[in-house]
Amino acid sequence: MIELFSANTPNGKKISIMLEEIGYEYKITKIDLDKGEQLNSDFKKISPFGKIPIIIDHENNKTIFESGAILIYLSERSGKFYNENNRTEINQWLMAQMGYVGPMLGQHHQFHHYNPGKSKFGEDRFFKISKRIYEDLDEQLSNSKFLSGDNYTIADIATFPWIARHEWHDIGLKNYKNLTRWYIDISKREGVIKGFAFMNKEETVPKP
Ligand SMILES: N[C@@H](CCC(=O)N[C@@H](CS)C(=O)NCC(=O)O)C(=O)O
After folding, report:
1. Which of 6, 97, 99, 186 would be a feasible disulfide site paired with 158, CB 3.0-4.6 Å?
2. Rounded distance between C-alpha atoms, residue 149 and residue 182, angstroms
3. Mean pLDDT per 10-residue segment, the chain (208 residues)
4. pTM greater than 0.90 (yes/no)
5. What is the pLDDT, as a whole number, of residue 23?
6. Which residues pair with 26 in a beta bridge?
7. Ligand 1 pocket check: which of 14, 32, 44, 51 to mutate, most ligand atoms within 8 Å of Cβ?
8. Which residues have C-beta atoms less than 6 Å from ligand 1?
9. 143 CA distance to ligand 1 middle (Å)
């Protein structure tokens, strides 16, 4: 049994989607970020930076932090979505999500969605970077069915919940036809639909 400590955010959804995709049984422990539960001393023992998501694999008593590391762990454990012959390619797109796509879209959420009007510089900077991310993902997907080749992998699982916030981005997902095709294909997967709704059974994947 896997215990998932999480909140209803893109980083949180990466792991619920993965757990649904590999068909593992899991228990959700909700961490209320608005109440600051991520900073409680008990939680900090398993999450050194006070962040979700975290998993505990109760079968072997392993605790893992960082969503990319969790995805790698679960794919190695299940043998799914991390093909050994394509790992360099998958790692590049997974690391790009972890180090660039997620953090930049996250800043865009902060300036454009949560705090508009507070910093024109921040709004312009992260809007521009986010638009470039859409363009660059679209370009990659013009040559490739999924981000790292012909197969759906943990790189797609990591990136999808961030693009699923496209309504907040105001960039117009529909203008990017390859990214939209990828997004629609992934939206139809049963594991994605279930994993997306892990904290709110009524929640559906936003349409492009
Ligand atoms: N690089 C980390 C980022 C995790 C992260 O930023 N989590 C956010 C929610 S999406 C969080 O826990 N924020 C609470 C805080 O920073 O206090 C990962 O991918 O696991």
Report:
1. 97
2. 12
3. 97 98 98 98 98 98 98 98 97 98 98 98 98 98 97 98 98 98 98 98 97
4. yes
5. 98
6. 2
7. 51
8. 9, 11, 33, 38, 50-53, 66-67, 98
9. 31
| pLDDT tens per residue across span 51-62 | 999 999 999 999
* Joined tokens for residue 168: 């907040």
DSSP-derived 3-state class of residue 23: coil
117, two tokens: 């009007």
Q: How far apart are CA 166 and CA 18, in angstroms?
A: 21
State how far the Cα of 18 lies from the Cα of 110, in Å rounded to an integer. 26
Contact 171, 131 (CB under 8 A): yes
42, 97 contact by CB (below 8 A): no
Q: Which atom of ligand 1 is nearest to the CA of 33?
A: 14
Phi then psi dihedrals of residue 33, to 5 deg:
-70, -35
Q: What is the pLDDT of residues 12-49, one digit of tens each?
A: 999 999 999 999 999 999 999 999 999 999 999 999 99
The residue whose C-alpha atom lies closest to atom 11 belonging to ligand 1 is 51
